[in-house]
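Hello,

Following up on my earlier ticket. Below are the two sequence lines again, exactly as submitted.
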Amino acid sequence: MSSNLIFAEAPRASRSPLRSYIGGFLLSLLLTALSFGVVMAGRVPPGLALDAISLLAVAQLVVQLVFFLHLGAAPEQRHNTVIFILTALLITTVVSGSLWVMHNADVNMMPMSSMPER
Amino acid sequence: MSVTYPTQLPAAEAASHGHDHAHDDGSKTVLGFWIYLMSDCLIFASLFATFGVLGTSAAGGPAARDLFDLPYVAAETALLLISSFTFGLASIALQAGRKETVALWLVVTFAFGLGFIGMEVHEFSHLMEVGAGPGRSAFLSAYFTLVGTHGLHVTAGLVWLAVMIHQLFAFGLDGVVRRRLACLSLFWHFLDLVWICVFTFVYLRGVIV
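Thanks for your patience. The regenerated structure is below:
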């Protein structure tokens, strides 16, 4: 595994690919179990649980991007990483913008009970 | 060990182009495929935004809390996560040039992916049986569209896996097969990423809110 430089595709994998995949897999399992645990235990207040699972999801996304998709700052990874960061920015804008605008519209709408059948 | 040329280029291409074109190997294709995946991300982003807006509009029908079975979803999640890991093992075998090992892990990946799709189809048919089909409410329309789009991607990935297992034996580990497997690897791991968002923001959040 040390002669990676021979392979054109190899630099995407870090020093020990097997360790990288096993580490990523175990971390993902742990984070997934924590997410389901927080909700299925039913003892965490809803607001807090929502924050917790959102954080855990972001953590697991980062883990898989680094360990499975080999994103990073190394020269041969940089293109993919920069494109991903731009996409993440677009996603954040689209999702948070939609939720914000639609929530606003919802709050300002006439109550459903006083409206005729849609 | 049937591999004599460890680079991305097939033998003939490597001979005719020479080493000064070494940068023009499969990496550009893989980068292009990555850009496609990012545009796919935007499709999912808009579907997630739609679900975020409509997720609580159950129109008097069954809500997320009444429908979702978390242990079942956890099992689906485990299948997809394991399949992502086994694809990683196939990638490692690919770099080591071990064709049979690559094929073995691809078959294992296919099996877990098929298990995931089987569970999802079963889940969908159950929902429709209990009168919670996509036509029931805005929440269910958004749910079926989002989760169904992910399921279609996984199904496409399964077809692609089957094709690559065939090509592995038909062509061996040549440059083209390596390049295609590199793209499929990105595709498969990417679907696992999308599923993280699905189980968090559709299933878990749906049960909390």
